[in-house]
Specification:
Two copies of one chain form a homodimer. By secondary structure, chain A is α+β, with helices and mostly antiparallel strands. The first copy, chain A, has two domains: 86 residues, Arc Repressor Mutant, subunit A (Orthogonal Bundle); 111 residues, Nonspecific Lipid-transfer Protein, Chain A (2-Layer Sandwich). Chain A binds a DNA duplex through α3 and α4.
Chain lengths: 232, 232
DNA sequence: CGGTATCCACTACGATACTG
DNA sequence: CAGTATCGTAGTGGATACCG
């Protein structure tokens, strides 16, 4: 076992575990609650399955996760490393401009969103939402249409027509919706400006903004307007 | 500019900046106060100079550091990223066993140490300390002997005989000294056990343990004895 | 569902030498 | 001191196919 950095400094040792390609993003998935291999992969779709398996093995060997009964779980050490992932994310939310063309991916957005629905605010009956995203650069492989089938307490994400009647149609510019998701701009403002259009069942249109909890990073305070932020 | 991860998630965007090879360690040097190119390189000696220059350019482009008048400085964003470096280091101190054979490097240890001397506790006059490390695997290129020339408020690290009379001789097992440096074991205990030997001027022998401030990570609380820690 | 095996392409990196 | 230039290579990881 050769050390990448050859330093006994704990920053270097921790970096050998944490600062590998894809690893922070895999850990983010685990922090957000993914447990199965394919489930994790949905949150990191552009990693190859072979490499994902390798990274999971490495994290297991490092004692950050445990693999039992086909589930991956953060150990105690892993949960503390999860706090580092959160601070890194908070830094990104504060100091970068994450919504850029080559980063837009509707799969990821809907995958994240379906975990952040306030199920207790949903009506008792099943609610079906259909999303249509536009403003996606051509040549992108991700679908433009997604469905949420929400039946308390479950929220299922579909990429093929689920066959139920749709209660709410959401038609949105992908970049604008991503900015809403990240808390950079209030959803009602974007609806007013027309970059997000809601139609269908009257109550669903009215209540949808309250169902959607937004990213856990949406609440991160941003630097003052006067401070220079980065375009990275 | 193609995105590494193709995700607008701030964790991914921040990882594109932070979780690159060597970058956390370069940032650690900046956090600890290094400013010049060669100064930074002394704290990251195993990176090639070409790659260090490239990383510094990338960090500048990302707005994490600024290069002015031949000095690199953390920006406001960089200082906040420095907090992430510190938490990562704290995690490493808590959950890893950093002192392993292939990570020992006396250059790094002495380089870090010379920045952590309580100069205000030193005598008025110049004090010269000579370190001799043993227990280093053969084939290691780093010297075994180093000198600190301490003349308030400066502490100079030398790898060649500075020509002054030596006040204090420190002869130590490198691994043991590293453990002391990281706060894993008290210096007086290791001196008692014989893995560190102090000789020379009587007062210097007595006071040396109080001059040496230890790593900034030495004070990190470790998990309870009963909790499993990693050997990574 | 949850992976492994194989193969190949690339590129990031280290080594070395050189420059203002 | 503070880098740049050049070049060869090790190793990383993507693609594809296969398996229990």
């Amino acid at each position: 076992m050769k050390s990448r950095y050859g330093q006994f400094c704990p920053v270097a040792v921790a970096s050998e575990i944490f600062a590998e390609r894809w690893t922070p993003i895999i850990l983010r998935e685990l922090v957000l609650g993914s447990r199965g291999f394919n489930e994790i992969h949905r949150g990191v779709p552009r990693i190859s399955r072979a490499l994902l398996a390798k990274r999971l093995r490495e994290l297991t060997a490092a004692g950050v996760i445990e693999a039992t009964e086909g589930e991956y779980r953060l150990t105690e050490a892993g949960q503390e490393l999860g706090e580092v992932v959160k601070s890194l994310g908070a830094w990104g939310a504060r100091w970068t401009a994450p919504v850029q063309r080559d980063r837009l991916d509707a799969r990821l957005l809907t995958w994240d969103m379906h975990r952040r629905i306030a199920v207790e605010r949903l009506p008792e009956r099943r609610v079906v939402v259909r999303f249509d995203f536009h403003g996606v650069p051509a040549g992108h492989k991700a679908p433009r249409t997604y469905w949420f089938v929400m039946e308390r307490p479950d929220v299922d994400l579909c990429i093929i027509e689920p066959g139920f009647e749709v209660d709410l149609f959401v038609s949105a510019d992908l970049a604008s919706f991503a900015r809403v998701w990240l808390g950079e701009v209030p959803i009602r403002q974007v609806v007013r400006e027309g970059a997000i259009k809601l139609s269908g069942n009257r109550e669903a249109v009215r209540d949808f903004p309250s169902w959607l909890l937004l990213s856990t990073l949406a609440a991160v305070p941003r630097p003052a307007e006067t401070t220079q932020r980065r375009v990275a």
